[in-house]
Write a structure and sequence with these properties.
Blueprint (H helix, E strand, L loop, with lengths): L17 H9 L1 H10 L5 H14 L7 H6 L2 H9 L8 H19 L5 H4 L4 H10 L5 H14 L7 H4 L18 H42 L1 H4 L1
């Protein structure tokens, strides 16, 4: 995946580490694993993970068949060895192995086959959503990453990616092209998190008010006095 579908060279700056970004650009499986690890850790940490994992496996790339067949305890040890590959190394090791086992069973171990012949954005979204560890949001973000930075653009890909597919957005890893855009995406995520927290707090307060009013009404009813 060193070149996009349009034949242009791919240069990534997601991990903010040249060797790790070079692996992401040329290895479809590394890109998928990086996306899988992008959960509850800084984006740079998640997308450096595939490079670190490959090194610990004694290779310059990841192989789905090898990972799928790896002894589970030994594979977990690759994640837990300090520095750990993730905040939750044990569970993420299991998810990565499950992802690779699925790729072997459904795509003969070829990660790029997930999107290579997808005819529409909706079909690609469905395929991504079927991957172990990929919910709708993660699938849409990766679809946007494929379209924006890898040149994988089946018909309707932006619509299928939702808001993450919008041109010029700064919502996700799909929009990171360097330190400046990384800071913008991080700021957006922090604002979204704060807004969600405020909304949850407001909803909780509203619920408490309604409960108090209902209790007061019940207390003041004739039956309650009787």
């Amino acid at each position: 995946m060193t070149k996009s579908d349009s034949g242009k060279d791919i240069t990534l700056r997601i991990a903010q580490q040249p060797a790790a970004d070079e692996l992401l650009a040329r290895s479809p499986l590394a890109a998928l694993v990086g996306m899988l690890l992008d959960q509850q850790v800084p984006m740079e940490w998640a997308f450096t993970g595939p490079y670190t994992l490959a090194g610990r496996m004694g290779s310059d790339d990841l192989d789905a068949a090898e990972i799928a067949a790896y002894d589970p305890e030994a594979f977990t040890a690759l994640f837990t060895t300090k520095p750990a590959l993730h905040r939750y190394p044990g569970s993420m090791a299991q998810r990565v192995q499950q992802l690779c086992q699925y790729l072997v069973a459904e795509y003969e171990g070829d990660a790029s086959a997930v999107w290579r012949d997808a005819g529409t954005g909706e079909e690609l979204l469905r395929r991504l959503n079927d991957l172990p560890g990929f919910g709708t949001q993660k699938a849409q973000i990766f679809l946007a990453l494929l379209g924006k930075q890898f040149g994988v653009r089946p018909t309707g890909w932006r619509a299928a990616a939702g808001a993450y597919g919008e041109e010029g957005s700064r919502r996700s890893v799909a929009d990171i092209t360097g330190p400046e855009s990384l800071a913008e995406v991080r700021a957006y995520k922090q604002e979204a998190k704060a807004a969600a927290k405020a909304a949850a707090k407001a909803a909780k307060a509203t619920k408490a008010t309604k409960t108090a009013k209902a209790a007061k009404t019940a207390k003041g009813s004739p039956k309650a006095k009787g």
